[in-house]
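ingest -> validate -> predict -> emit
validate: passed (alphabet ok, no gaps, 415 aa)
predict: started
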Amino acid sequence: MSGGGGYVGSIQNDLISYVNTGYVTVGTNTGHKGTPLSAEWALNNMERQINFGRLAVHRTAAVSKSIINSFYCAYPSFSYFLGCSRGGGQAMVEAQLYPEDFNGIVAGAPAFNWPAIGAKFIQGCQLNYPDPKNLTKPVITNDNLKLLQELVLKQCDNIDGLNDKIINDPRNCKFDFSKLPVCPNDKAGPNCFTKQQLSAIKAVYSPVMIEDKEVYPSFPFGLEAENGSWDAWIAGSNQMPSLHYLFGTDLFKYLVYNDPSWDYTKYDFKKFFEDTRYASSYLDATQSDYSDFKKLKGKMIMYHGWNDPALSAFATINHYEEAMKKDKDLQAYIRLFLLPGVLHCGGGTGADNVDMVKLIQDWTENGKAPDRVIFSKIEKGNTLMTRPVYPYPKVAIYNGKGKSTDEKNFGVKGN
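emit:
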């Protein structure tokens, strides 16, 4: 089964080609018709909200297995679920709440803590779109992105010994904001930042805090100016607002407050936990106890691009570390892979291509746990590079010899 993206709204199935390898495949619109960018369908409709949040995939899985049994006179030998973004969140819902549905699960760049994600989006939009009547002039410009990426790479690209537009581990990037050029007289220009622009940019790299509690973490440094990065998700353009704006405002309007007139510019977060309690109850997959999934011998691969501008890799890391505290044996059945230089579900300058179906199948059916996984960067049918990725907390390290585009020239750091 394939997961959906955004607010779904259509039957989505990225795995249809696998019918040629002995699988039956299925997708779901999660109980409503619409576009992935709009949540208007959810207004005052509890049934649609709960189907979208946690029931649709489970119900589809159960009915699909029944149909398979009726047609083939046998239930499937193994069942798998693979999804990224919203689909990654659906994957985590399945592992946490319906562990009997799938033997193997792949959760990519998971959207698993929705109101918290929305809070991060609104935090940025309040600074990037201070005037709700003028969404065609974001504070952060394309010139800002080009200059910002250039300066981030200048400070942090070579930490891993390579100048390749890939920050191998952004946690090692201790970026010095004082080196960003400030515009004279605070007048915007292509080679400097105004005070307003600096505030909006710094907010992206800052967590959402309510009193002393972190609601959602910061975004890692790197690839701010790549196509499909901040331009689409965070900064936006004069053609359309950012995806943070579109997803964030619809989330609060239709899934939290049921109020289409809700104004993001006036939101002060003071009652965030109280106001989002109901929405979190059906949208979130934040349980860190996977003991039921473990008892059923389930296997799950989690992955996240380090430079994902949609959902911070730090959020996934935090969740995984919480689960590791609950079960020291977690890596025996759930493993996390962090992809350097990769954006949301793919793209960017890093290696982002691997056969996840084969990986999860080998682990589930043959006991071959993914360890040194070789990802590729493929453009127009040509393989530009290969890189190994190890289960978190291990990190791939260039050994200083040979081409950096060849995975054979990388070792590993960590236990």
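The radius of gyration is 21 Å.
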